């Protein structure tokens, strides 16, 4: 069994949160990371459920992105809300996943997450640039269950 703390030290976690904060300085989009050990459900379905549980479907512009990891299952999903799916090319998330996967294979979860967050942020910025009065609609903290 892998503990989340084996994957991300407290300092690593702070760096991941900082990457989210920096990405969101450029875009109105909201990025969250959720980590759990295992699910019996289909991973995409479970990610959708977490997306809803975290209230990520309530952003004003429907531009939340969830990076969901099931660590014991060695599986992760990147899930964007409707507003993003409507504008981002289909293979964008696949390319982002490949980049992340390469780091995860080397057990470098911090770099994998930061790369994923940074890439998502860059793409979000193109379609959903930061605007005056933008708020932090969703916490940048890593969510766990
Ligand atoms: Ca925001
Ligand atoms: Ca946020």
Give a verbal description of the structure.
With 145 residues, this protein is an alpha/beta fold. The chain has one domain: Roll (Diaminopimelate Epimerase, Chain A, domain 1). Helices cover 46% and strands 15% of the residues. It has six helices and four strands. The chain has helices spanning 4-7, 10-24, 43-53, 82-85, 92-105, 109-127; strands at residues 30-36, 64-70, 75-80, 143-144. The protein has a four-stranded mixed beta sheet, sandwiched between helices. Strand 2 and strand 3 form a beta hairpin. The longest helix is centred in the last third of the chain and has 19 residues, at 109-127. The radius of gyration is 14 Å and the shape is globular. The two termini are 15 Å apart. 35% of the residues are buried. The site of one calcium ion has 7 residues, from loops.
CATH class category label: Alpha Beta
- Main sheet makeup: 4 strands, mixed
Order of helices and strands: HHEHEEHHHE
Strand order in the sheet with the most strands: 3-2-1-4
Tally of DSSP helical segments: 6
CATH architecture designation? Roll
Query: Shape, please?
Result: globular
Number of strands: 4
The name CATH uses for the topology is Diaminopimelate Epimerase, Chain A, domain 1
What structural class should be given to the helix and strand makeup? alpha/beta
What is the mean pLDDT? 94
List the bound ligands. calcium ion
User: Rounded to an integer, what's the Rg over CA atoms?
Assistant: 14 Å
Proportion of helical residues: 40-55%
Which segments are poorly predicted (pLDDT under 50) over 5 or more consecutive residues?
A: none
Number of separate domains? 1
Straight-line N-to-C gap: 15 Å
What proportion strand?
15-25%
